[in-house]
Design a protein that fits this description.
homotetramer, about 350 residues, Aspartate Aminotransferase, domain 2, Aspartate Aminotransferase, domain 1, 7-stranded mixed beta sheet, 11 strands
Chain lengths: ~350, ~350, ~350, ~350
């Protein structure tokens, strides 16, 4: 009953086996390993983008930050959701790598509305040299609230950016969870929807620690490489990144894992819907649920062995009737039985 | 016959086993995993420094840069060898993280002389607010030329820094190789010799990718944590760093591996000494040899299957008699037979 | 009828005379001129802060940015009004100098409410190392909307900051206008109200270009000096800054100029109140008015020779009845006749 | 007898008069003043570069740093003399604005030799993504030792840069002194000699504080403007910069002042040559002399009222016979009588 985070679960055994296999003998470092050549081709094929630049990096903060550093200028502002990971959870890393600032677009269920985005972008750069200039748009899919943009919604947002001459970045830390939920192709969820560069996550979906940075305009490739190195993010024993990503992508493992995680989430959601004391805050669409419940109920769950974050208060201290928000995240490794056990506990 | 780099070899099987073992079940991320608690204690014990702050990070460039960012101010200059890795091989990462500049101290065999260091430090900060101010000293041990500072030499350098009110950082990417060669304790090679913070390398000595940052003044700990996060270097599935380091340190594995690497290097050196055409440029003291040989000889070795870097020219193109510099690096995984095979080939 | 900005008017003749006088003979540069010694004492006396560090700098963006760079850390966030100059009009300069980000506190009439500030501060730093940490608070007095914080309101805001262990910066680009409007002492409007450092403006109030940075904790002095130099903001012929500030402060010239500017503003406000077509958006308290009027009226004023900014549309193009916002700023050099002329034109 | 620095002397009366004249009435700020339009045309004409972008900035550190920030990338290294002002005297400002590092080229008399420059450039960027990449070259004319590059020497250096695909910046803090000494045109000393951008100094040659940044490739103009603003270097009352520069350039005032300064320097040099105890270290070619003399002689001069910097020791304390280096700088305001007085004192 561990629903704290999708980065708290184990890596998939096939990923581990690939690591072991990659550990044989000698291999040139820094991305010149032969597995990386295969991975690049694999990802270009997957995205139907034979010219895309493809790089591996150790985590999502680094993927986002090096990409945004490559896409933004230090006198610009990056547009993103007010609950975006790049704003709330990366301790100024995107600003560190880019020099730019962030302009926050309001959200209700974790999603930016096209009108709000348009208004925020239009409001910038009316002060000539005095104010920050318009930089890239960054969209998070799956959002931080567990919701999804439809393909049309993605395209609408990126079209606004494009109309202002801006590029669009996709923070896809949970790319696979979104993809299987939308039942679309990687190309459809990215460049066909106007996305220029993607943080393609693996870590939260069964890898040890690896994300791909996919840049559809190869003209940015060399700058990305220099920024990655300058950030200390070019790994010497790079084959261990390559091997993870190769196993991740082989035989649809990544999609299977995302489907499993999402299925467990839907099972949880159904159970929560049937429970009087709990109220879901957003309609879960991938592998994450936010729900409200009285403090006493959270405490009861915790005492019963359920592990998850309570976001806005201490389950142990305070008015037992006060509603508090819990977050449940599922990953590939959870079983239907584990979820049932949680729901049984919830039902009391 | 692969002597290109000590980061081209495999990780030790025990390190891989530890990864597999660490992959069981759920674990809190970002350094809150239980293995990290054990590792911290292990390293504090090893360094006889129960209050030291200990952090893990994915590679040497990151270890050096986040540490120097914590130790230096953006209006300062960091003193280092003119051949230091932080100057030549990190694409401005130390400057990126610290904002400081580097002042290069001349070297002959990769080592700074105390007099030269003193002169360089004394020459700075005579211009009041106009010039850069004196920042930390960074010493590389093993040096980039495969040589070693004795404990007395280390202490002499750090004492100069201390006399100017400066701190001293040790770039220990090859810490273990130095330690077994000097046959001393970690404490003797660090804080007892005046070192304030250490990049304690694992990657070049049999890990997949992990370095410890050891800071003897715990007052710097929180700033280090924030700078690590802001650089995108705090890993979510941190247990995979912890597990590597734990295996690395258990039962003296790290020392055994370093001894093996150094032994192979001594075997190589002895062979080279007996070879007329080759001349060693520095007295090898750890696991790295620089030697000169005519181009034709390098070509012959390459054709025979030996892999190593020729630093100052193409072995294939040019005057066959021109002497070129080769670099041989050994790691834990090499066998005495492999080295013999190389030497046999050399002898023709 | 020039109401575009208080930095568009001339410098006071006494300031110009002081420049001429300071131009005699030789003087050591970089702040070592004898006039600076006098200015420092003058300002320390004025602020009843004999230990305050006092520096001169060429403009308000530089004053704010170097001060905030000294007060904030690159992993922090600076709290400020959503309409603050440091956010809207300095092209990321505060972020450039500090590395920090900005957290915007909502405003109605240009002022932050204590509750909103508290909520914004409380909401940060709940994510441990993952989110930005709490940095300084920056308050603008006179606000960007021409309104004022009372001394109690200032104290309430800075007390909130203090309770969270944060320092408070005052952007006093229009310090004098605020001071004479509140009829208080510099000490009362700063350190007695909990302010730790002040951008004390001269440029908008009759100087050529000079601001004082006043830091009540002298421990920050040397870092400020280094950051000023590193930003290229230490002037060699510094006596021309010192001379301006000396003349500005002598015999209450600065207060006289601010009183004159404010008086013209009140005259304008009275006239606007009596005009049906115009509606003031905020109660003007210093030297700046924001008012709404139909486009056709703005156009009529412009055609009649009145110069001021229309903030949200082109007075020439669009629906003649659409209300647009005009901004009127007065400075020391305006005459009552000039204002009457404007009001006569307005009345038609 | 004040020879401490050319920024210690007064501004020329015509510059002051221009300031007074520019102070009439209202003028739009931030470079939109009408005088700036005239100055831009004036400088474009002077440099025979009708498309050049021209900006004014308050001092030389800012001019160099904003220009180099515009020309260099943060993963590059800027090549400059080991005694360059951008290295020794700007407290990391060029690094702050550019993110790049500096590679120091050895000098003897303040000048880089073409061979040394070539070797330093060739040695960089051989490490692929690992080392810093080649950024711009920065040449100082007049050098920090008072010597000059001939036009051929300038062209030879910039051609080397060009062959490596690099741009060249000229630090012309003493541009006028060099120009009249070489008796050439601004175009000949800049773009005709391969220079891409110039810090065109006024401050050291009779202005209060103004430098022009002249960029021959207008494609860089907008980025320069944004970087200037982001550094806090766009002045609101910009007309006071424009007015200075206009007066400076009108009727050849700037050339007359430089000729006067250089003439006084030659007078000094002649006197020093005839003095046994003093030895000039470099052949003075503009307005600066470095000379050695026993400590006792420096002390005698100081006691007699001569003011200048002794670079390498305290004239008051130490062996009276030890030779110490003095620096003498002349400016436009010095009289032949003043110099004679100094030389008389020297002769004893």
């Amino acid at each position: 009953m561990f629903f704290a985070s999708d980065n708290a679960g184990p890596a998939h055994p096939k990923v581990m086996e690939a690591l072991i296999a990659a550990n044989e003998g000698y291999a040139m470092g820094y991305g010149a390993d032969p597995i990386m050549d295969a991975v690049r081709t694999q990802i270009q094929g997957l995205f139907e983008a034979p010219d895309a630049a493809v790089y591996l990096i150790i985590n999502g903060t680094a993927a986002n930050s090096v990409l945004l550093g490559t896409m933004a200028q230090p006198w610009q502002t990056i547009f993103c959701a007010d609950v975006a990971h790049i704003h709330e959870d990366e301790c100024n890393a995107p600003e560190f790598y880019s020099g730019a600032k962030l302009t926050l677009v309001p959200t209700t269920d974790g999603k930016m509305a096209a009108d709000d985005l348009h208004q925020k972008i239009a409001a910038e750069q009316n002060r000539g040299v005095h104010g920050p200039q318009r930089g890239p748009l960054s969209i998070t899919q799956v959002t931080e609230k567990g919701t999804l943009y439809s393909l049309d919604e993605l395209a609408a947002l990126s079209r606004i950016a494009q109309d202002f001459g801006m590029q669009t970045h996709l923070d896809g830390a949970r790319f696979a969870n979104a993809l299987v939920a939308l039942d679309c192709t990687p190309a459809e969820m990215t460049w066909k929807a106007g996305i220029d560069a993607v943080s393609f996550g693996g870590t939260k979906n069964g890898a040890l620690g690896v994300e791909a940075c996919v840049i559809f305009d190869p003209a940015l490739a060399w700058e990305f490489e220099l920024r990655r190195k300058r950030g200390g993010h070019l790994l010497s024993k790079h084959r261990f990144l390559s091997a993870q990503m190769q196993a991740y992508l082989t035989d649809g493992l990544w999609l299977d894992m995302a489907r499993a995680a999402n299925a467990r989430c839907m099972q949880l959601a159904e159970g929560l819907r049937g429970h009087n004391a709990a109220e879901m805050l957003y309609e879960p669409q991938a592998n994450m649920i936010f729900f409200q419940m009285p403090r006493s109920e959270h405490k009861r769950m915790r005492d019963g062995g359920a592990v998850y974050y309570v976001m806005d208060g201490d389950p142990e201290v305070g008015d037992p009737d006060e509603p508090l928000t819990g977050r449940l995240v599922t990953d590939w490794s959870m079983t239907a039985e584990g979820v049932s056990q949680f729901l049984d506990l919830l039902r009391g």
